[in-house]
Amino acid sequence: MLRFQHTYHLFALALLPLLIILFIWMIYWRRKKLKKLGDEKLVMEQILGFIPGRNTFKFTLLAIGFFFIVIGWANLQSADKTEKVQRKGVDVIFALDVSKSMLAKDVQPDRLTRAKQLIMHMMDKMHNDRVGLIVFAGRAYMQVPLTVDYSATKMLLQNVSPDMIPTQGTVIGDAIDMAMQSYSKQERKYKALVIISDGEDHDEQAIQKTKDAAETGVTVHTVGIGSAQGATLYDPVTKSVKLDESGNPVISKLNEDELKSIASAGHGTYNLLQNTDDVANKLMNELDGMEQKSLGSVVFTDYTSYFQYFLIIGFIALLIEWLLPGVKKKAITI
User: Fold this and answer.
1) Hey, which residues does 193 pair with through a beta bridge?
2) What pLDDT, on a 0 to 100 scale, did the predictor assign at position 296?
């Protein structure tokens, strides 16, 4: 089994296509300038020390060096030893509201960013629990099925935004339905749903669906984010305050009553997200206090790292590029 120890470092590879596009544009721009001087081939021959293809070759070495250094930085590993261990945990699904009202800034830097931080903090405290991620606005979507791969979940969580869901609204009931489809049908416990929302748009079906979920053994916790006073919303396109049909500023307010009712129906707790660490600790205490199922399985305990080989290749490519002259040296005559 192969894995990258630091998968988030691989995001740096996204720079490579940009660099290639920039290099191609530079070649196009240079040729356009040379054509203004006359025949491109003749002009190139007149440039002192010019070596055809040398710039392209040097850039290729840079790109290869960059690629291998990033791979080495992420540290590719292979599993060498397995061990049978007994793990216990619960299945926790996070249902995250990504409606545009979550961009309100009555919580700094904004509601959605703080909600993501809460989920990150909770996963940092988890060891054996399986986690899943649902995003919802006018519709609900399964973003991450139940998994113990916290790193991959965090990566996907970072990219969550209101643009993912074109239909606006706050359909908490749909998020609950999707969570119910993800849990094991054979178990009537070991299951928790954490809903993080401003609860702004009232979902009439949410309470009943929460009661139905509770009857199957799912504990539903809610986290409210925002303020009762609310905050104006800004249109990310126009960079101005969003207005309603009457021309008045749109103000988004936290609906605590709705979220408290859902938590009560789901035999869970309600928390107002003010201090991220405090809320994360409270929720983790609730999850740790649940009856946990045995998750005995084979896990990999020893890994061999191969980062040094990739780094060596990368540095050699960069060294060759640095030593390789860009132009011919002028001959010395005596």
Assistant:
1) 93, 220
2) 55
Least confident piece of the model among 121-125, 140-144, 195-199, 296-300? 296-300
Count the residues in the chain.
334
Q: Is residue 144 part of a domain?
A: yes
CA gap 219, 193 in Å, rounded: 6
131-162 b/e (C-beta count within 10 Å ≥ 16 → b): bbbbbbbeebebbbebebebeebbeebeebeb
Structure tokens at 147: 């998994």
**CA dist., res. 315 & res. 323, Å (int):** 12
Listed in sequence order, the residues at least 6 apart from 255 whose beta carbon sits closer than 8 Å to its beta carbon are 198, 199, 200, 202, 224
Residue 171 within any structural domain of the chain: yes
Distance, CA of 129 to CA of 300 (rounded, Å): 17
**Plot region of 225 (φ>0 → left; ψ -120 to 50 → alpha; else → beta):** beta
Strands (E), 178-313: 191-197, 218-224, 231-232, 234-235, 240-241, 251-252, 270-272, 293-294, 297-305
State residue 297's pLDDT score: 55
* Same-domain pairing of 145 and 280: yes
d(CA 141, CA 95): 9
Helix axes 111-125, 276-288, angle to 10 degrees: 40
Domain enclosing residue 273, as ranges: 87-294
Contact 162, 189 (CB under 8 A): no
Tell me what pLDDT residue 331 has: 44
Asked whether residue 331 is assigned to any structural domain, the reply reads no
Judge whether residue 208 has pLDDT over 90: yes
Q: Answer whether 295's CB lies under 8 Å from 224's CB.
A: no
Whole-number pLDDT of residue 213 = 95
Give burial (CB, 10 Å; 0-12/13-18/19+) of 199: buried
> What is the model's pLDDT at position 263?
96
pLDDT greater than 80 at residue 65: yes
Task: Tell me which amino acid residue 11 is.
Answer: F
pLDDT in tens, 75-98: 988 877 666 655 678 899 999 999
